[in-house]
Amino acid sequence: MQSTTRVCGRVALSWALAAMVPMGAAWAQAAPTPLTLAEALDRARTTSPVVEIADAQVEAARGRQTQAGAGINPEASYTVENFSGSGVLRGMDSAESTIGLSQQLELGGKREARSETAGKQADAVAVRGRIARADLDLTVRERFAELSAAEERLDLARAALERARKLSDLAQTLVDAGREPPLRVLRAQALAAQAEAQFSIASAELAAAQRGLAVLWGGAESAIDAVGPWEFQQPDERLNTSPTDTLDYRLAVAEHDAAEAALRLEKANAWVDVTVSGGLRRFESTGEQAWIAGISIPIPIQNMNGGAIAAARADDRAAELQLNIALAEMVRRINDARSAFEAADARAAALENQAVRQAEEALSLAQIGYEAGRFQLIDVLDAEDAFASIRNASIDARLARARAAAALIRANAN
Taking 70 as the threshold, does the pLDDT of residue 361 lie above it? Predict the structure, then answer.
């Protein structure tokens, strides 16, 4: 009696789970758009906000570089002296008016150093933009693989649901014929209810994977069919990039170059600038005119830019040390990514080549034997559980291999 109650409870719980999750009919309403990995990458590279942000940042950095190379504008002036006073200085008869022009001269190569620094900083921003694109490609590959895995899980759940329904009908037939006790029907119905719930869950997971991929290029479509390989095949010789040629190391080099340029700029800023001026003065009392000229030079007794030079020198030293760290990190990252791929590839191959095939054969034999009366229902249920477990493990292993391949491609990006 307790066993019957437990089985009935499992049936009720399974049907409740199935009711909580929307059925796959809603997913099937819209025909999915076939999409290969290459097409997904192209969409993301073309319309992703990440790419647009990177392009805007590079454009801004190049604009700052252009501005940094601009010179200092000259200054025009006009002055009037000795007017509207008292005595002989009353009115404008004794006024002196001067029209002048002055120009500040940057010494020490400030302009060139400023332009070079902005250019090196723009180069670093450009490398960061390429890194953003490589990271976007990594995310696209991962989510494409997740979508492919979700599609396979949905196919697996659909096939399991069909088998569970047929098994429930067969069990009912055998019970009606007196060849099985009534309890077996309840167990078969529980399996069908669980398969129904799992199919609904797999449908929801597929829809989430579709949205997760489409959002990378700002897409509104909710039905995408991932076609073609997940790109988990053996990476070729193009993924044997030298660590010094990778984007991450190039960024460290670009930042070091920018730090060196900033140090040169601060040293140039220690030079004082000279301002030269000239003009024409008119004496209203006599109507005569005369040229004037002048020069002004700051006296560097309080500020010689020593603090800024020291800070820039420390930044340059830190950037140089960061180069060594970046190189070691890239060597580790590439080696770890390759090892992870090889391990995932070996596990996936073992499951694909042997375990899945054996589990499928065992399930087929159990089904045939049960129909012939040689096996019990429990044998079919055990074979079904083993097959589902191994198939899901195979999908997980291939997904892990796809992610490892994507990480390896990203580590070798140059």
Answer: no
Q: How far apart are CA 389 and CA 366, in angstroms?
A: 16
% of the chain beyond a pLDDT of 70: 79
For residue 276, give the DSSP letter: E
Q: Coil, strand or helix: which one is 279?
A: strand
* Single-letter amino acid code for the residue at 2: Q
Measured CA to CA, the distance from residue 393 to residue 173 in angstroms comes to 33
Residue 363 has a CB neighbour count (10 Å cut-off) of 21
Strand 96-105's sheet: what is its strand order? 75-81, 96-105, 274-283, 288-296
- 257: three-class secondary structure by DSSP: helix
C-alpha 124/C-alpha 58 separation (Å) is 9
Q: Rounded mean pLDDT of 368-395?
A: 69
- Integer angstrom CA distances of residue 383 from 116, 376, 390, 405: 70, 11, 11, 33
| Residue with the two structure tokens 């070091």 | 256
Distance CA 333, CA 237 (A): 17
Rounded to 10°, the helix 377-411/182-214 angle is 10
Task: Please give the helix or strand (H or E) that residue 238 lies within, else none.
Answer: none
What is the token pair recorded at 395? 């999908």
Spatial distance between the Cα atoms of 304 and 341, rounded to a whole number of angstroms? 56
Burial of 199 (0-12, 13-18, 19+ CB in 10 A): buried
**CATH architecture of the region 2-71+106-270+305-411:** Up-down Bundle (1.20)
Instruction: Tell me the average pLDDT across 84-110.
Output: 86
Q: Can you read off the two tokens belonging to residue 57?
A: 């940042």
- Residue 14 to residue 11: CA distance in whole angstroms: 5
Asked if residues 27 and 206 have their Cβ atoms less than 8 Å apart, the reply is yes
Distance CA(146)–CA(143), nearest Å, equals 5
Domain residue spans of the chain: 2-71+106-270+305-411
pTM metric for this prediction: 0.79
Residue count of the chain: 414
What burial class does residue 64 get, using C-beta atoms within 10 Å of its C-beta: 0-12 exposed, 13-18 middle, 19+ buried?
A: middle
Amino acid letter at 75?
Answer: E
Alpha-carbon span 363 to 360, nearest angstrom: 5
Task: Round to whole Å and give the CA distance between 277 and 411.
Answer: 58
